[in-house]
Write a structure and sequence with these properties.
The chain is an all-alpha fold. The chain has a domain of about 150 residues. The chain contains 9 helices and 2 strands. Strands 1-2 form a two-stranded antiparallel ribbon. A hairpin with a 2-residue loop joins strand 1 and strand 2. The radius of gyration is 25 Å and the shape is elongated. About 20% of the residues are buried.
Length: about 220
């Protein structure tokens, strides 16, 4: 195996690892969304209890001494702590993901520098977006029935690494914006959209990743 093939395989190993991290991050985000819903319900019940005590006592001063119930306070505090924990773990994930991107950038530095954003976009256009079939004749000659059949030119590996790195970088930037937007006041509809975007990864073209994996002779099965 030549130097470029070895570099490409190492690059794709890090891509697979980053994908595993991404799934864990998605689980944490979904957990945050569920806990935030529970927290809001607990705070609502706490407020309603307070209102009932005030109405029954006919005295706002007395209601301050009576309630709300300690079990409601404990519940909301416990949920708030879990929300803080989820947010912390999401930031830890982002730090690890950023380190992975740094490794990918180190492996594919020359490829990234040689391919501008326009060129990376042009590489993506070499794939049929409706079917996921690559229209690059050179690569097609080396792939039959989803199995890698032979060596590719240096330029093919180089352009593929640049394209994949660009997609992963955009995905990471999207995730970072999502985490930065999280808080106790995050609207429910916005949170649902964040979860969908995180899980679906609109910046990633998975058929491109699958094709790249086939070049490393890894069994071609979708990572999405």
């Amino acid at each position: 195996m030549g130097e470029i093939e070895e570099a490409f395989k190492l690059f794709m190993d890090w891509v697979v690892y980053l994908n595993g991290l991404h799934k864990l991050g998605g689980q944490i985000l979904v957990e945050f969304a569920k806990k935030l819903g529970a927290y809001r319900r607990a705070k609502k019940e706490e407020a309603e209890y307070f209102a009932r005590v005030a109405a029954a006592a006919h005295s706002q001063r007395l209601s301050l001494y009576l309630g709300p119930g300690s079990w409601l306070e404990d519940t909301s505090k416990a949920l708030a702590a879990k929300l803080d924990s989820a947010t912390t773990r999401l930031w830890i994930y982002l730090n690890e993901a950023h380190e992975c991107l740094n490794h990918l950038a180190g492996i594919s530095k020359d490829a990234i520098e040689e391919h501008s954003e326009h060129e990376a976009t042009r590489e993506l256009e070499r794939f049929n977006l409706s079917t996921g079939d690559e229209v690059c004749a050179g690569a097609d000659r080396t792939t039959r029935n989803g199995k890698f059949q032979g060596r590719l030119p240096f330029s093919e590996y180089s352009s593929m690494m640049a394209l994949i790195y660009k997609m992963l970088e955009e995905d990471y930037n999207m995730q970072r914006k999502i985490v930065e937007a999280l808080g106790l006041d995050t609207p429910a509809d916005a949170l649902t959209e964040y979860c969908t975007m995180w899980l679906e990864q609109p910046c990633i073209k998975w058929y491109v990743i699958d094709r790249a994996l086939s070049w490393t002779q890894i069994p071609e099965e979708s990572m999405s």
